[in-house]
Design brief:
alpha+beta; two-stranded antiparallel ribbon
């Protein structure tokens, strides 16, 4: 197992137990590019130098952080001075409150971490808190400091008992999120047509399926590898093909109708009895309004 990213205490009032956090994600891309000189084909290398560069490259051990407190004047900050900053959340995640999972909008979540007991002696308290979070559907909120800042952290318990650990997410602070009103203000207000809405809901229904993360892969990575292999073997480089032109759609209603007709409902096993008064998919499609002068059509 990899080394933990952070080790410390989770503290809830007078209850505390040791945990270790491990990154739950990893970069899978295997294509790495370097910068080359177009004329010579040699690799470009970057060196750290002072303002004029007359002293040559500066060694890594001779580089420290600096804060510009006045134009052209800096105060030097040594690595050990940052390391020894007095901040409790470097070692303890103090839970300040619990909230319902549904209260946190997705845009606040940032990066996931696996949370495990630090050792066997911490397992009992860990398991009790995990089960309490799971059964109450609550998220524990607190802060921990790492990577040069103090992070807001949400600790959750998976609903699957086969996963006995917890998952923590670093979260964005409210001030880091741009206000949506300035981006959405210019959206034209329109009246929703009930027939169009029925077709849109039918389309969503037919394309609804259980989420399977294994179905989604990075095709960009595959295309890059194909291009690199072609260049290595002096073969023609695959080119992007123009997107196929779809049949001309007169209006939104036609687009919805054609989409619903072109998608078959997924096999969901045994059919459940239909509620009285509920329209079937074909009845819903038959509600389409035809254009002016045209006869009403059933799908």
């Amino acid at each position: 197992m990899a080394r933990p990213f952070w080790t410390g205490q989770i503290q809830i009032s007078l209850v505390s137990f040791g945990v270790s956090l491990f990154p739950a994600t990893e970069t899978k891309s295997e294509i790495r590019f370097h910068q080359l000189s177009r004329s010579t084909g040699e690799r470009i290398r970057h060196q750290k130098v002072t303002g004029e560069g007359e002293e040559g490259p500066v060694e890594k051990d001779d580089i420290v952080k600096g804060y510009e407190y006045r134009k052209g004047e800096y105060v030097m900050i040594e690595p050990d001075e940052i390391k020894n900053l007095r901040i409790p959340s470097k070692h303890t995640l103090e839970v300040t409150q619990f909230v319902d999972m549904k209260e946190i909008d997705p845009e606040f979540y940032e990066k996931p971490y696996f949370v495990v007991p630090e050792d066997d002696s911490q397992a009992e308290a860990f398991a009790v808190v995990r089960k309490a979070l799971q059964t109450t559907h609550k998220v524990a909120l607190g802060k921990i400091a790492f990577s040069g800042r103090e992070h807001l952290i949400a600790v959750t318990a998976p609903s699957d008992d086969k996963l006995p650990g917890m998952i923590a997410y670093t979260m964005r602070y409210a001030e880091e999120l741009r206000k949506p009103a300035s981006y959405f203000a210019e959206i034209k207000k329109t009246t929703i047509d009930n027939d169009q809405l029925s077709l849109a809901k039918e389309l969503i229904k037919r394309k609804t399926a259980k989420f399977d993360p294994e179905k989604f892969t990075d095709q960009y990575e595959a295309a890059l590898r194909e291009m690199v292999e072609a260049k290595i073997q002096n073969l023609p480089v695959p080119q992007d093909e123009p997107a196929p032109r779809s049949a001309k759609v007169i209006n939104l209603m036609d687009a919805l109708r054609k989409s619903v007709q072109g998608d078959k409902a997924p096999a969901l096993g045994k059919k459940t009895p239909q509620k009285a008064g509920a329209a079937t998919s074909r009845e819903g499609i038959a509600l389409v309004k035809a254009g002016k002068g045209a006869k009403r059509k059933s799908a």
